[in-house]
Amino acid sequence: MTTSAVDPTQELAAFLRTRRERLDPAELGLPPRRQARRTPGLRREEVAELAGISVDYVVRLEQARGPRPSAEVAGALADALRLAPDERAYLFGLSGQRPPGADRPATDAAPALARLVADLSPLPAVLMNHRYDLLAWNPEASALLCDLDALPPHERNALWLCLLHPRVREFYPDRERVAREAVAHLRAAWAAHPHDRALSDLIARFTAGHDGFARLWARRDVRVGARGTKLIRHPDLGDLTVEFETLRPVQDPDQLLVVHRPADARSRSALDRLRAR
């Protein structure tokens, strides 16, 4: 059996019908009808009333004849149909809309991810949002980079460390490449979250305060790399090479988990010494 490419309008129509038909009117507190229901679930009139839209519009959506819902209408339909979070995201995707708050990044680590960062010891690991704000880290990450706990909150940002921290900025022998890739990652995040005012403010602050950032930003390079290798010139350990892997949890897609591993035996020995200290 083969499946054709998804037609968002047709799939939206089918999805709305199936979600409407699975609901029990009594559980929603709707008054009983004298006339027996010929189909299970809610009537279109009831969905329209719950969502605050016209019956005709609901009919056209379920017949794949109407325009795609706005973000406001998609939210109203999701509420009316009592959609679970994953179903709600699916409805917004079919509607070509972004859910409210999609551009607001997490400012605190999800508890399960914070525990995972701790459990990844002895591998250095950090958790970031799409602005590259550091949300959680383990002791090994602090020992490798700098004392992250001692940084003021506005400096707990991976790009700020790379560009402006007096110690970390000297870590990378190939600093130009590292900075170029970091700025390219930030540009991709900026395009994906165009309404994030705090992210725009962060970019403006970097542009005004760092000539190198302004030059790299003007290149308009874009990169969404999830893994790579970095040579680090650590002040206590000397040169070591780490491989990094960036993971995006399905449950919290705005949070990025970055895990560092030694790339060779010499680097493994250096990280062992760092951990022992």
UniProtKB/TrEMBL annotation:
It comes from the Bacteria. SUPFAM superfamilies: lambda repressor-like DNA-binding domains. Gene3D superfamilies: 3.30.450.180, lambda repressor-like DNA-binding domains. Residues 34-88 form the HTH cro/C1-type domain. PANTHER family: BLL4672 PROTEIN, BLL4672 PROTEIN-RELATED. CDD domains: HTH_XRE. This is Transcriptional regulator. GO terms for molecular function: DNA binding.
